[in-house]
């Protein structure tokens, strides 16, 4: 007994849907340690911002960003399924474009308060993750929303302790999100 044309098309659609879901879950699994890494980097960076004078912030973040980018490349190469071929470089180029945008915003608008400078990267990162979640991977939408909301809450409620809030809430959101994605 053969199958009809519509049954075959339905089976192929189911197979493609399953394969797409498998790729998405594998991508989450490979992204998990990267998110956890950046959660730790945020925690260290923002804690340092709370402890050091503002003129030292750039140096701290330069060192942490270099460590983060190199580690991200190594982790991406380890997880070849998530970053096959030129994907690693596309991701890094996208991150570079966002970093350049943030630097341009800071240079052009020069935040008038320390708190605005502390909260902006969290808002921007939340926006980027939310956009990625809308476009490709739905869990990223929730990660972005959590980071965006944590940044706003910190800015409006915890200003005297904003650096420490961003270390705990922002870094924590990224780290816990990595744990969540690893379980996907």
Molecular structure report:
With 184 residues, the chain is mainly alpha-helical. The protein has one domain (24-182). 84% of the residues lie in helices and 0% in strands. The chain has helices at 5-51, 57-78, 87-109, 114-135, 138-157, 162-182. The longest helix has 47 residues, at 5-51. The N and C termini lie far apart (39 Å).
Question: What's the quick description here?
Answer:
With 184 residues, the chain is mostly helical. Helix content is 84%, strand content 0%. It has one domain (24-182).
Helix content: over 70%
Structural class: mainly alpha
Query: Would you tell me the overall average pLDDT?
Result: 88
Number of strands: 0
Which properties best describe this structure?
184 residues, 0% strand, mainly alpha, 84% helix, 6 helices
Helix and strand arrangement:
Elements: H1 5-51, H2 57-78, H3 87-109, H4 114-135, H5 138-157, H6 162-182
């Amino acid at each position: 007994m053969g199958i009809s044309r519509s049954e075959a098309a339905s089976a192929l659609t189911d197979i493609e849907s399953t394969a797409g879901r498998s790729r998405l879950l594998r991508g989450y699994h490979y992204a998990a340690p990267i998110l956890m890494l950046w959660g730790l980097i945020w925690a260290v960076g923002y804690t340092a911002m709370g402890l050091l004078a503002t003129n030292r912030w750039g140096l701290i973040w330069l060192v942490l960003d270099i460590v983060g980018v190199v580690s991200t490349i190594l982790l991406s190469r380890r997880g070849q399924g998530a970053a096959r071929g030129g994907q690693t470089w596309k991701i890094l180029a996208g991150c570079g474009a966002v970093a350049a945008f943030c630097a341009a915003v800071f240079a052009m608008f020069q935040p008038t308060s320390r708190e605005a400078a502390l909260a902006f990267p969290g808002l921007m990162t939340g926006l980027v993750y939310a956009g990625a979640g809308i476009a490709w991977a739905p869990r990223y939408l929730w990660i972005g929303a959590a980071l965006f909301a944590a940044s706003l809450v910190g800015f409006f409620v915890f200003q005297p302790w904003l650096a420490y809030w961003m270390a705990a809430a922002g870094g924590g959101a990224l780290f816990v999100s990595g744990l969540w994605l690893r379980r996907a």
